[in-house]
Amino acid sequence: MENSNTKQAAFNPEDFSIVPARSFDELAVGDVFRAPSRTLTDAHASAFQTVSCDNHPIHYDAEYAKRYGHEAPVVHGLQVLAFTAPGATLLPHYFGKVFISFLELSCNFLKEVHSGDTLYSSLTITDLSPQGDRGIVTTKVTVYNQKSELVLEGQHKYLLKR
């Protein structure tokens, strides 16, 4: 409790940062940023189907999926890729004011994902390329399921101020 005779410090919104921001040069190859696990439900798949407008029956028709060799409807690959969003981790908070843009991404879909699967995603810095007053951060992205199977792997690149 503050004494009424004590002078109150000025409010500064930056004091409410989740983590201290780092400069490009304070990042390190090998830094890992994990997202909380999430179990996919039929509601998630349905919401993504609505947003993506992807109405292929492989994603919602159990009999269609079985007819084509799948144990259940397959979660949209782009929905699984969305689990690698940097904002699902603390990475953008570490970038702070030095973030310029998300440059590119690539991925390989390695295993099917179904409603009821729990996904665990992470981003690991694999390269830091200084380029004058800017730098490119490359991360390896991975998504595992509850069976410890790698279901997606890929790469992101970000442009930061130095």
From TrEMBL:
Domain MaoC-like: 29-140
Superkingdom, taxonomy of origin: Bacteria
Pfam families: MaoC_dehydratas (PF01575)
InterPro entries referenced in this protein's UniProt entry, alphabetically: HotDog_dom_sf (IPR029069), MaoC-like_dom (IPR002539), MCH/BMMD (IPR052342)
Residues forming coiled coils: none
SUPFAM superfamilies per UniProt: Thioesterase/thiol ester dehydrase-isomerase
Signal peptide start and end residues: none
PANTHER family: BETA-METHYLMALYL-COA DEHYDRATASE, MONOAMINE OXIDASE-RELATED
Protein name from the UniProt record: MaoC family dehydratase
Organism in which the protein naturally occurs: Chryseobacterium pyrolae
